[in-house]
């Protein structure tokens, strides 16, 4: 279970959030995702996804993460689409770049959509790896 964002209840610490994002970065490395605009640094306890073009705010960071996931989905060449579609600046019905910090409902939906897409991509990557090993 990946808990990727701070909870308004306060029951989720930064260490757990950082560990979850580290797992995301490790998944991207495991899949061997290579992008011109990205550098993945799988540091423990806090991995970094560095967008080579300057990114200065959380909304842009999340848009960049969505772009990386969309590229990963394309790379896996699956006939299955993501559970929550990713566009240039949204996942599902959430506009990522314009999320105010106080909109807990939208942030919760964003994290849910992101986690579902990550699980889907992880399953596809595992299946792709098994196919390559057996084939």
UniProtKB/TrEMBL annotation:
<protein>
    <submittedName>
        <fullName>Uncharacterized protein</fullName>
    </submittedName>
</protein>
<dbReference type="InterPro" id="IPR038274">
    <property type="entry name" value="Atg6/Beclin_C_sf"/>
</dbReference>
């Amino acid at each position: 279970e990946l808990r990727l964002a701070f909870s308004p209840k306060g029951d989720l610490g930064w260490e757990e959030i950082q560990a979850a994002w580290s797992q995301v970065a490790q998944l991207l490395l495991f899949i061997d995702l290579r992008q011109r605009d990205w550098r993945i640094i799988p540091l423990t306890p806090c991995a970094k996804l560095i967008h080579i073009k300057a990114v200065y705010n959380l909304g842009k960071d999340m848009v960049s993460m969505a772009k990386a996931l969309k590229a990963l989905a394309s790379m896996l060449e699956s006939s299955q689409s993501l559970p929550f579609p990713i566009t240039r600046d949204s996942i599902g019905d959430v506009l990522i770049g314009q999320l105010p910090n106080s909109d807990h409902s939208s942030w919760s939906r964003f994290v849910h959509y992101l986690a579902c897409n990550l699980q889907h991509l992880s399953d596809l990557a595992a299946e792709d790896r098994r196919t390559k090993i057996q084939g």
